Amino acid sequence: MEKKEQESYYTPREIVAELDKYIIGQKDAKKNVAIALRNRWRRMNVTSDIQNEIMPNNILMIGATGVGKTEIARRLAKIADAPFTKVEASKFTEVGYVGRDVESMVRDLVEHSVTLVRERKKEEVMIKANQIVEDIILDALIPPVVTPNSTTNTTVPLNEETKENEELNHKTRELFRKKIQSGELDDRKIDISISQPVNAGIGMVGGGMMDEVSMMNLQEMISGMMPKKNKKRKVSIGEAKKILLEEEAAKLIDMDEVKEEARYKAENTGIIFIDEVDKIARNSTGKSGPDVSREGVQRDLLPIVEGSTVNTKHGIVKTDHILFIAAGAFHFSKPSDLIPELQGRFPIRVELENLTEDDFYHILKEPKNALTKQYEALLTSEGIELEFSDDSMREIAKTAFEINTELENIGARRLHTVVSQLLNDYLFDVPDQIQPGTKITITPEMVNEKLNVLTKNKDLSEYIL
Prior knowledge:
This protein is of the alpha/beta class. It has 3 domains: 6-114 and 262-351, P-loop containing nucleotide triphosphate hydrolases (Rossmann fold); 132-259, no CATH class; 357-456, Orthogonal Bundle (Helicase, Ruva Protein, domain 3). The protein has helices at 12-20, 27-44, 69-80, 104-141, 148-152, 160-182, 212-225, 237-252, 255-269, 291-306, 340-344, 357-365, 371-380, 390-406, 413-429, 444-456, and strands at 59-62, 84-88, 189-196, 229-236, 271-275, 309-312, 315-318, 323-328, 348-351, 385-388, 439-442. It has a 5-stranded parallel sheet, sandwiched between helices. A two-stranded antiparallel ribbon has the order 3-4. Strands 6-7 form a two-stranded antiparallel ribbon. α15 crosses α16. The longest helix has 38 residues, at 104-141. It is flat and about 90 Å long. It starts with 11 loop residues before the first helix and ends in a 9-residue tail after the last helix. The model is unreliable at 1-8, 95-99 and 204-210 (pLDDT under 50).
């Protein structure tokens, strides 16, 4: 690939600094994922034949719910501009072990990769697509002058009147082009022709011997053979811009190139996050029963993690260099309860720390997407200024930590429950009783008053998310 992956611009320290903008604490986990991400770029820049022999160091994260396991993996993928998919291992143990096929997580990864590449390609052709859309709208508003030259491709001399008509038409079109670009004509209605998607509608009674991928490929092939249908619609120019821009940009994108690049991206930069991996571990008690199916899931996962080929609708994908990050609380089992072969495929083990009251305070205050900042932005859209005092954030953190201690510990997710309860009355009263231009400052006293019901009532079932 000519284009360097974005992760090449980040050193391990820079990766950790990016993660610090969104995730509080968990330094050990951040350090390990940063090394794993940088190692992928290092491998891709190895020039010798050993490049294909360098395997990723898959990571096993151990920690309670709500401490940041999923967020670390998700943010890591965004930093690397890499395809990412999350799957819950317990999905594969559903009734009668007829849950999702384990290979489906690789197919999901490839689909996400295709979406990423297609969006980037769309940005590259957007200028050209915009020009085409403007021409289509102009043709609907002011059709171009048709001359003998344009219809017969001859070199018949044009008379003065025809020349003047052409020049006037050109000037008028350019004037209207500027109006279209500025949005002056967005409310004006025009007739446009839109391509209708063709649904092959292929199915098989009883499923037959055809698998999911073959079925999708057959439907895609038959859809491609069927003639496209066009539908006339009368829409505003503003709406026409959006509809036609998508359609024209899609025409300019080479989907074969997109699929090829997406497969490469999935194979070399893809990240698969397997959550609740502790749910497929054998219990330490060694009892039989459901544990048999759990071990079966592990053995099905093993070849994917070790490195195999998976058939997808976009082609065959190798999983050798996909980075797998597994996570689990391991309250009732231990990592050693996983089958030895699977343990060996996750050489890096990171134990995430439980969040403290001080961590909750920093989570409310520091991240770019902090919960307090989200609510401030929501109320700003109504013309209301919301402000949390420093002491109020400490009080919120204290309340959330106490509830986690007394009841089930759900980590930082408890903050959503607490802040929602705190602000519910304000969110309901805006804008009917609290008018735009009002400033609301949250104080420790307000926190205590609003959250008193949560701290005093031990039966919190109606508040727990």
